[in-house]
């Protein structure tokens, strides 16, 4: 099966890192097609970035449709453009925040999210509420690691994350930890060995959930919320959506 | 004071209709600057349209900032891009759905929304939940009037709306009606005369709320959720946001 | 237009202070008619005070009706008697707590209320829940300033309020502050200059909201919750309601 | 023990009817002291009536305190003035709506309220929400029986009530019925025999709950919400509260 | 009347202690029949213990039915098997956690639960949510007293409880305290004298509530949720349920 | 990997049917170990049945632990004993109701549950609330098919189910359907072909979710809610738990 892994920011380095993590967990028969948009911000840290990235990644969804992928993954912890993507495609679309919350909810009754910039905390709270997982989340913690540092996997970054995770255990009473950033995928193993509770990564969770839906023969419902958008005139830089 | 009235779809006819309704209610000292984006869809009827329109209207917000407007209004009933717009500007930003709900909540304890396409109903429910008005909303009713018909103000459109409003009164027990589309602004007076309960229009509500905030000297909080977005590299069709 | 500003406690000094604040923000064409009941408590700091004051202020509403005012404002942060007042009049009725919450919700996603006596905190929580703003309120803080001291605008009162506001910013992560007492209206400007976030006052917010409804031609719905009360026998000290 | 049964409206006939129902269920050692205010409305059917009656019944609470009653009961289904009464007295205060909901929640997971005037329905919904019983209530049904007819126990009233109860069983799936009016107490036995599910009356429920608290030696907490009100000047018709 | 008091764990010492507390509050005409299951765990401190104890105590319910008891009480603070018991019997069934929450909600608007093992805290939160009392509960506090120590009523246990109660008052702002363990019943009087707020015990609360329902002639609704279970084959150690 | 599939009722025919459905979806490397308890009810249709079955299936969990299975599945739509099972084992435990809800929530925003006996409807509502999926569920529909008929896969059963599913589509506006009974697994394909929306089966969903957790190297958190139960004395028919 073909799974399209969309990194919604424009950093190719980040895309490659995610593709690596995704391939490590994917089934042998799964083909991971990693991609990032050719338009938009280098990183997503505000509602403004989120809106621009969402509009840009929809081009990737359309491209995936042409390639007849079996599922799409939106690999940014704010799940930008998820509902719009589900409208555009009948292949399942999974967001990595959503995927991580689902996984955590099967293993504990109280998790904390550990994320990078504090500016993304409101979005995470909004998603928890929207999906129905608010009652399981003890806290959303931000380390304020610069995304660039995260990309370079500095040892200091690992230590900051580890400290924040221990705070989650001791202060929040967290029974599991959800890593709130796609760029943390490569530290999961190390953190899992250092901490006594499950550490959950969205990218690998999303790969397995997407594979599940394909194996089960299930696709996004095209009745109601996720019906295909009506064709209509688009102008200017969105002229390519004119149909 | 200068209030920027943004029609997030690309229909200039719709912009003019709204500007007309807005001017009719605005204070003498208010200058309405009506605008629509130069990019994006002709109408907004799905999450897909919403994401594209949101990305496009942020250009208008930036333009408004350069013109030093005192407030911005997003005049589509889905309030697309509202949070992102609040990040970009310190001048207050008001969505017309939000404005209509606020107004209704001051006049009754149970209102129904009467809107056009049924594809917009989920968005309305999501907004009611997000803003905190769900407990006051009896029902969201869609008439499935084509937006083009709405634009031409056909008599049949008025009759359909009127019927749906009466349904809201008799079936839902609605004590007030919120019109769920910017394009209905010109029928408010007629509907108000025909029905025994308040009929609330988002555009005029938004104008008065925006004027209030300017008169009170209040601007969007730049601490927390609506802080200015960090500058960062943008590429491709969003290169103009590179700062 | 004529707006009746009702101070529900019996302190004329407080009424005058409010009338002053109200006139400062009102539109040129607005005539503020300030009044306080001739019966009831000197201040409102408990559910007991609230019930008595509510019964007393309904006389003011009736008086306003006779004067054909265009809107009524209940200027005590507990919004006493609001639903009953809306039944008695068709002119819109606005409570100042309600007005302040509406205003805050247009400027931020997380506000704190700073109020005087801790005995009023439960009422504030109840109102937040009732109106649907609980999710936006980070904290309700009481300074335990005596109302009399507040009336005299002592410098020490200002300092106490300012300290509490800074606590709201630093501890609660408040993005805006709602002042939870009509008697604080004269400190808004000073606090606004000292603090980096919006400071919201209920009296001025209520004036602008009341003016909006009048300008929009909207009145309280008389279907359902706010229908006129049935006439019936009243005895004793409420004999004047006998109709 | 002495239990004060307060009928908050001014109808002495209603007071006697309730006293009769109360005595039938009370323990041998319980002394029922039935009373109604000397001020206020003949019946309570709106928020307006509720506010006036609440202010009036507080005089009864004070009188009960002087008589050293062990508990107070507020015998109107809107529980008017309950919080204020709890502040004024340390003896427990029970509202009959509250009492009926508590009783119903011990016998089923889904009840309907059958009440008289439809104008009281919003109050009932508000109480269900406030107390935390909303999830157990399938429906609030109004028969629109005139209160006077109810007082005269006409056979037609019984038939209307019975029909509405059957509707609750068949349409709502009600597993129990709460009678939403103090004036229905004398029909409980007859309805209980005619219907296959529990019929719950507030007055008798309240008597037993009040007796419980007295037997358990428990009184209203005077810390926090229900602390005694501060003494302060009262003027006009409330001068007797001046302390 | 005959009330069956079921201690769901297998400690006869605990049963006797509860029976003593129950008899002290029961009406003269009430006959308390105390019992514990002949199968199951010595104490209930986890979901695992809870499931086993629930299955075991249903035998006691059946025995009570044969003895024609008028009501059953499940005297463990997790209310194990409550819904199943209500299906099996038409006589009312009361859980002691449920009973204590009902009692507390009549005396204050904010209580804390003080319990023993921290492993029981999640169950308590779940019950608060399920019954609808979450909004009234400030905190659930665990002292981690060993149940055996509790049984022996050591002075040190009393001091630990007292300290925790004071924490509830000062830190949580608790207005009343619910004791979260049937084994604490004998300390209620002492704690009540030492603390300025109501101390609520589930066993005595449950006795009075059960007596109420019997006096009111009310039994569990057999329509809907609590209908009798269908007869069907049972095998192995549950063969005695085969009917 | 070894996955233990527990049918919590004692019908071996049902176990075999489930094992068949499970094997059809499982990965090549997955070994399905299907089992049913040697004690308990032939079917689970009430809270009473649920409690007995939960106590009985815990023996299966212990047996699975000895066999070192990698995950357990509880294959009854009420998810009986799920929390207790998670305490007993460190291997992940998945309930089929939970699994089906998770799957549905990835494909639509509004699903209906179609189940057999109406007596199981309350349990389903309780689970939806407990897991956080209530906002996505339009309706829980019961067909009142006898479980025995279901076992024999009668054509009439299929027609009844199909009719109920169409009702869900047309009346509830369901965008997907969750089959609320393990015994329906063999009709999924046929229903999926007949209906235009996704049909979701709990058993196959649970298999894929359990495989995911094993592949991700994740196990149930043993901190907090799901810590191992303390060892303690058990007597009578639960003596084998004495440790």
UniProtKB/TrEMBL annotation, chains A, B, C, D, E, F:
Report the Gene3D superfamilies cross-referenced here. Answer: 3.40.50.12500
Ranges annotated as spanning the membrane: none
**InterPro entries documented for this protein:** Asp/Glu/hydantoin_racemase, Hydantoin_racemase-like, Iso_Racemase_Enz_sf
> Source organism's superkingdom?
Bacteria
Family matches, as PANTHER family: PROTEIN DCG1
Q: Which family does it belong to?
A: Belongs to the HyuE racemase family.
This chain's protein is named Aspartate/glutamate racemase family protein
Gene source species: Vibrio zhugei
UniProt lineage: Bacteria, Pseudomonadati, Pseudomonadota, Gammaproteobacteria, Vibrionales
């Amino acid at each position: 099966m073909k799974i399209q892994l969309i990194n919604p920011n424009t950093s190719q380095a980040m895309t490659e890192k995610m593709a690596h993590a995704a391939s490590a967990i994917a089934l042998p028969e799964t083909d991971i097609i990693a991609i990032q948009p050719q338009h938009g911000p280098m990183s997503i840290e505000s509602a403004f970035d989120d809106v621009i990235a969402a509009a840009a990644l929809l081009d990737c969804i359309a491209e995936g449709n042409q390639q007849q992928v079996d599922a799409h993954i939106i690999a940014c912890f704010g799940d930008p453009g998820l509902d719009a993507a589900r409208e555009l495609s009948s292949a399942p679309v999974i967001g990595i925040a959503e995927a991580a919350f689902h996984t955590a909810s099967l293993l504990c009754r109280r998790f904390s999210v550990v994320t990078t910039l504090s500016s993304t905390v409101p979005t995470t709270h909004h998603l928890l509420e929207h999906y129905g997982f608010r009652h399981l989340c003890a806290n959303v913690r931000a380390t304020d690691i610069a995304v660039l540092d995260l990309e370079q996997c500095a040892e200091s970054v690992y230590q900051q994350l580890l400290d924040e995770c221990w705070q989650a255990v001791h202060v929040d009473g967290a029974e599991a930890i959800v890593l709130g950033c796609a760029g943390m995928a490569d530290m999961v193993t190390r953190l899992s060995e250092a901490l006594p509770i499950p550490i959950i990564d969205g990218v690998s969770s999303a790969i397995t959930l997407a594979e599940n839906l394909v194996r089960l023969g299930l696709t996004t419902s095209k009745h109601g919320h996720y019906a295909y958008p009506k064709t209509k005139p688009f102008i200017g830089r969105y002229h390519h959506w004119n149909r």
